[in-house]
């Protein structure tokens, strides 16, 4: 029996966003996810895809917003230190805003909504770290405020997690998060190459 998503039941459009008519939101591409205790499985591949997506968005003239998580001084998310800085491969250019958040949903307690609304696009393209946390919750936040997020799977990464006496490998966690998003909150495309 074919599987039906909540998106299909509600008649939501599953056409992926186009860069030229979207706001690209890059989530937590911070150095902390490339080394040490928070290093993600597959971060290099995801960062490469994110950098390609960013280059194409800039070429298309899309609005680009960068998001970083600030966990406070001395934490693995200290934005005042190198560990919490945005990776140089996807560093912001002058004029590209950086939104600082403290919650997984990048719309909570930030001005991300103002940047998104000022760009005038309903469609958002989301990519970043970690798939199951800030990417998933920001997609949910975007959906709940009336935006139409498209999440780029190959530009996201996460890590293995323990659950109920076992461990899910990073690939399982990544795909589970993407399935949750695709069930209701947004469109998921496998590759940045599928965003035109």
Q: What name does CATH use for the topology?
A: Rossmann fold
Whole-number average pLDDT? 97
Low-confidence stretches: none
The domain count comes to: 1
Q: Assembly type of the shown chains?
A: single chain
Write a brief caption for the model.
With 196 residues, the protein is of the alpha/beta class. The chain has helices at 6-10, 43-60, 112-119, 131-144, 170-185, and strands at residues 22-27, 63-69, 98-101, 123-129, 148-157, 161-163, 166-168, 187-189.
Keywords:
Rossmann fold, 6-stranded parallel β-sheet
Describe the structure.
The protein is of the alpha/beta class. It has a single domain (17-194), classed as Isochorismatase-like (Rossmann fold). The protein has five helices and eight strands, in the order H-E-H-E-E-H-E-H-E-E-E-H-E. It has helices spanning 6-10, 43-60, 112-119, 131-144, 170-185; strands spanning 22-27, 63-69, 98-101, 123-129, 148-157, 161-163, 166-168, 187-189. A six-stranded parallel sheet has the order 3-2-1-4-5-8. Strand 6 (161-163) and strand 7 form a beta hairpin. Helix 4 (131-144) runs parallel beside helix 5.
What order do the helices and strands come in, and which of them pair?
Elements: H1 6-10, E1 22-27, H2 43-60, E2 63-69, E3 98-101, H3 112-119, E4 123-129, H4 131-144, E5 148-157, E6 161-163, E7 166-168, H5 170-185, E8 187-189
Parallel strand pairs: 1-2, 1-4, 2-3, 4-5, 5-8
Antiparallel strand pairs: 6-7
């Amino acid at each position: 029996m074919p599987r039906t998503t909540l998106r299909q039941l509600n008649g939501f459009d599953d056409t992926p966003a186009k860069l030229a008519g979207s706001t690209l939101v890059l989530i937590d591409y911070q150095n902390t996810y490339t080394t040490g205790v928070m290093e993600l499985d597959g971060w290099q591949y995801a960062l490469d895809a994110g950098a390609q997506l960013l280059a194409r968005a800039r070429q298309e003239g899309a609005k680009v917003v960068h998001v970083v998580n600030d966990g406070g001084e001395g934490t693995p998310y200290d934005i005042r230190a190198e560990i919490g800085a945005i990776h140089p491969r996807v560093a912001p250019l002058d004029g590209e805003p950086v939104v600082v958040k403290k919650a997984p949903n990048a719309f909570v307690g930030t001005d991300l909504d103002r940047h998104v609304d000022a760009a005038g696009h309903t469609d958002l393209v989301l990519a970043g770290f970690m798939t199951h946390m800030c990417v998933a919750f920001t997609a949910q936040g975007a959906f709940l405020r009336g935006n139409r997020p498209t999440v780029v799977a190959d530009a996201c990464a996460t890590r293995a997690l323990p659950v109920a006496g076992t461990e899910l490998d990073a690939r399982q966690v990544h795909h589970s998060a993407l399935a949750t998003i695709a069930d209701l909150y947004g469109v998921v495309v496998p590759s940045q190459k599928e965003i035109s």
